[in-house]
Amino acid sequence: MVITLALRSWDAQPPQVDREGAVTALETGHVLYLPHLAFAMRDEERIFLSARYSNPGSKNISFNPMTDELRGLGRGTRKEEYAPLAAMMARYARGARRLLDILLPRYQPFLETGRTSFRPAEIAGRIASSCRKDDTRLHVDAFPASPVLGKRILRIFSNVSPDGKKREWRIGEPFEAVARHFVGRIRPPLPGSATLLRLLRVTRDRRALYDHFMLDLHNRMKVDGAYQDDSPQTNVHFAPGSTWMVFTDQVPHAAMAGQHALEQTFYLPVSALATPEQSPLRILERLTGYRLV
Ligand code: SIN
Ligand code: FE
What we know:
Helix content: 25-40%
CATH architecture: Sandwich
CATH class: Mainly Beta
Low-confidence stretches: none
Distance between the termini: 29 Å
Strand content: 15-25%
Number of domains: 1
Number of helices: 7
Number of strands: 11
Structural class: alpha+beta
Bound molecules: succinic acid, fe (iii) ion
Mean pLDDT: 94
């Protein structure tokens, strides 16, 4: 479920065997764990390791590396702290991109950089506003407002805990098993609803059938208490000072405990995969008989 690589640097060329192994590991639904790869925070950035900087209503501070826009800041943040916080997140975004470019060169021409997030709040004991927003429940990622139109979601995380806290996850069964469990209950959307959601600005783009199926799958997994408790799953943890990456649209995951993480999202077209037939898109198309994008 978790494959470990001994990498210690964000920009040193990894050996060929690691590069090939990384693609296979990710596409077959493993988490790639780099226990010795730490994101180094600068001394003056340590003040951000306080939940004061995040908004109690949103679990993370989000940064757009394309526009430098910061969102979700807590009321405790002073104006003059925006720039250093944005600079730290931009550095993480650049480091993550560089690492992916050298570790996964076959994806490099196709990889799209998404948002960066900083998660300074403790997960355990947090009250989610709804079951669907509760990431302590096993789920595959799907974004209600941002259709991916079939693209893969590849995320990289770093545990930057200053006080030795592990980040504890549960990891669930292979995507095909999840899909088989739920797909018979998923109905196609009503005709015209994708256009309506776009017009009402519920979505940033027109939802593809794929987005509809993935979002429904995400929601059904989260609200199904029996699935949460009884489906095959493993507890894993990521040590402070470590980094890991995973296709979060494919691998069921739940974040149970931990504090202080950085995360960078990337999007990748299915055509850039070495084995597109293992993607959620192709698996769902096979199981439903629909063309989903
Ligand atoms: C999630 O993607 O569900 C949360 C992961 C985390 O914050 O560790
Ligand atoms: Fe998630």
